[in-house]
Amino acid sequence: MPKNPVQCQFVAALDSIVGKWKPIILYHLLQGKPLRFNELRRLLPDITQRMLTLHLRELEEEELVKRVIYPQIPPKVEYSITEYGMSLSPVLETLHQWGLAHVKRKQLKKAKNEQTETD
């Protein structure tokens, strides 16, 4: 049985950006300025150093993130979004807005359920 081409396209896209941290890393880098590793760590306080390193490498392999090493001591490394990575901006912004609406919806549902239980 042949593979579903639509399914394959979704899988290919999601393989590049899915993970607990990848969309958030990309979202921060889409804000425009290059960020150093420790700046990203501060923006994502719950991520481990190993996981941040892993995700940055994977995003770099996908050509979504660019890593620049400056020849100085101590070494300075900055991460920025690539032009190709910029193409994810509308997708991530839409996902961010949907997530915001989804959280609000869940909060309203929880409040409604709690109100029903107290009535």
Automatic annotation (TrEMBL):
Parts forming coiled coils: none
Keyword DNA-binding in annotation: yes
MF terms (GO), sorted A to Z: DNA binding
Record keywords: DNA-binding, Transcription, Transcription regulation
Top-level taxon of origin: Bacteria
Transmembrane segments: none
InterPro entries: HTH_HxlR (IPR002577), WH-like_DNA-bd_sf (IPR036388), WH_DNA-bd_sf (IPR036390)
Domain HTH hxlR-type: start-end pairs: 8-107
Protein name (record): Transcriptional regulator
Species whose genome carries this gene: Paenibacillus thalictri
